[in-house]
Design brief:
The chain is α+β, with helices and mostly antiparallel strands. Helices cover 26% and strands 23% of the residues. It has three domains: 12-77, 2-Layer Sandwich (Uridine Diphospho-n-acetylenolpyruvylglucosamine Reductase, domain 2), CATH 3.30.43; 84-202, Uridine Diphospho-n-acetylenolpyruvylglucosamine Reductase, domain 3 (2-Layer Sandwich), CATH 3.30.465; 206-369, FAD-linked oxidases, C-terminal domain (Vanillyl-alcohol Oxidase, Chain A, domain 3, 3-Layer(aba) Sandwich), CATH 3.40.462.10. The chain has helices at 37-50, 102-110, 128-134, 141-144, 147-150, 179-183, 216-219, 222-225, 241-244, 266-280, 290-301, 352-360, 381-394, and strands at residues 30-32, 54-57, 74-77, 84-88, 93-97, 114-115, 151-157, 163-167, 192-199, 201-202, 206-214, 235-240, 256-264, 285-288, 309-314, 334-337, 342-345, 364-370. Strand 4 and strand 5 (93-97) form a beta hairpin. The chain is globular.
Length: 402
Amino acid sequence: MDLSTLTSPLDAARTQDSARFTVGGSTPRLAVRPGSREEVAELVRWCGALRLALLPWGGGIALSRATAPQRYDVALDLTGLSQLVEYEPDDFTVTAECGVRVQDLAARLTAHGQELPLEAAEHWGATLGGVLAANASGPRRRRFGSPRDRVLGAQFVTGDGVIARTGGRVVKNVAGHAVHRLLVGSRGNLGVILEASLKLLPLPLARRALVHGMGAEELTDGKRWDGLARLEPSMLTVIGRAVAALNPVLASGAAFCAVVAFEDETQWVEACSVSVRERLGVPRLAVSDASVSALTQMLTDTEEMPGPRLTFTTASHSPECLAPLLSHAVAERLVFHAPAGRLHLFPAANEAGALIRLLETKGFALIDSRGVDHAPRRPQASIARLRARLQQALDPASVFAR
């Protein structure tokens, strides 16, 4: 089929500049920004009829740095769906369309003393649908959960262009299968999320974060970290020198920067801060309340540094597990969210293979890679069969780009 003259079935005003939607060097032949849910469904049906591969786009924060899909004909820009559908402060629930910006949604909730603990890199541009599709989270993942833990229900478009609903808009809802949780983390491979309902939390009474600079010996001294997990910090993140240097607040010249934060009742936060000072010494910087939120965003943004990236998970929740990396140059370019056991490395492309082999012998498992020539480990046969069944049920014509 000749795609050189491909035109959208929607109004010409919906067409966007395709160059803005390049993924891994691959630019789609067409980019469209629907203005309604019905237009999204119409475009999906059109792609199915013409056997075109469609890729849903939100803010494009992660997609712009991702590996190119095998087929990619049409970019579906969802930022036109940006309405707050329903907000019930008394029920601690919110329903919003997929294109609403995470930053805008957070501001609306903060005005009512509530928050949706979704952490998205570059939240000024990230959208709710994009965060859900990637199941993205940052340094507070262990304490407050991932997007999959917060979603109550969703409306979405299947691969054959049908608008469907799964779950509900209230916490106590057990109707039907939890397809909405399968959509979270599916990266747009199962359906186009149109709107989502999520559980909220009250803002904590107090927030405190302590920033410490330290060397390799201090970082791997297990006695310093022993028992810290029992205090349930909302953050315990370690970043390497090169990562810290990108932000004046975090840069100190030390080999590593460790950030420990607490969010809770005021007296408990103060007691935990005292305990951290006893273990780690006087912090280089201490911030409270709104400044902690800004610091959290800085740490989340570090996950989307440009260039190749390897992401690992580990059962260890202590910075001392980083010891195998300390003699390697990549130690300067690491981000480790200890409570969640989530490690991000930014190696040179030719370092990736050796790092993967090293860390897999030390209890780390690779869960994502970007910009490196590495074939991911094949999933277990049972998982592969389940994934195939889901894709066949929700996207029988393979409309969504993979």
